[in-house]
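Please, structure for the following, as tokens.
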Amino acid sequence: MAKVVAVNISDKKGVPKRTVECGELVENYGLKGDAHAGDWHRQVSFLGRESIDKMKALGIQGLCTGKFAENITTEGIELFSLKIGTQFKIGDAVLEVTQIGKECYKKCAIYYQVGDCVMPKEGIFAKVIKGGIIKAGDEIETPEQ
């Protein structure tokens, strides 16, 4: 089963996010209280726990949810295999995949530590089609289910 592991926010761009108990996805805006929310195509970012575990296997210590600046940490779903335009549900919220990966203009500390970072390849971005409250443990429903 695909599910949410953590909901993460920050009030500044370019910094790791802190994990919160729950979050509010706002239609056509993003995650309330997060610096990346707004009227654009990368309203919410996602990264799988499996991707974080790949970086841990390279010997990086201290990795936890939000360290890659992802809003939603997931497990049980290969996010980067979803097609752009795919809609999925978390609770009552509906999101649509708008971008797979990203170009990093500024290399992060993790990149300098091991020469690689997983977010540019395996992270995804989505816009909020329908808002709702989300929290750790919520199931992620995709059309393939």
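The longest strand covers residues 93-100. The chain is about 15% helix and 35% strand.
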